Amino acid sequence: GQGREGRNIALYVPAEKIDAGLLVLYCRVTRAQTREVQESLRLTALCKLSAPGGPDLKKDEPWHSELHAPQAPARIDAQTLGEFIQVTLDPYPLMEAGDTLRLHIGVEPLDYVVQPAEVGHTVTLHVPAGLLRQAGDSNALALDYQVIDRVGNVSEKWSARAFVQVRLGNT
């Protein structure tokens, strides 16, 4: 119709017609008066229909049932802290290379991208000493994480929490 040239047109595709995976998207336009057919440029896009971590099987809990608590040392002090501490995360359902694990150390974030060889295995993160110093001393510094996949889908909830006692001489 008139007045639409140069403007976006929204097209809706029923969800049951969409498959997960690499999709090639384009539009074919037939001009009403001339019956001339034109195709738009093609766009290849990755489509994922599930959230990383899979469905939360225990909706009544405040954390995601399938994202287990991080494992870290129970106590960290100035004598035991080197350049970093190791935090390990268990494998989780629908784990894929390219997922981002967003670990929170208190309120301090640390992002880590899952590598192909790590899929289905425990992932070890190195939390820099400086990040722990920024988080400050605590009797129970909370550690938890969420998963963000390559297309921006986010796990339904954060993981269960682990708590670490931190005594580095700063508050």
SSE layout and pairing:
Blueprint: E1 21-25, E2 28-30, E3 37-39, E4 43-47, E5 75-77, E6 84-89, E7 100-105, E8 108-113, E9 123-128, H1 129-135, E10 138-148, E11 162-167
Parallel strand pairs: 5-11
Antiparallel strand pairs: 1-4, 2-3, 6-9, 7-8, 7-10, 10-11
Question: What would you say about this model in short?
Answer:
This protein has 171 residues and is mainly beta.
Report on this model:
The structure is a single chain. With 171 residues, the protein is mainly β. 4% of the residues lie in helices and 35% in strands. The chain has one helix at 129-135, and strands at 21-25, 28-30, 37-39, 43-47, 75-77, 84-89, 100-105, 108-113, 123-128, 138-148, 162-167. The longest helix is centred in the C-terminal third of the chain and has 7 residues, at 129-135. It is elongated.
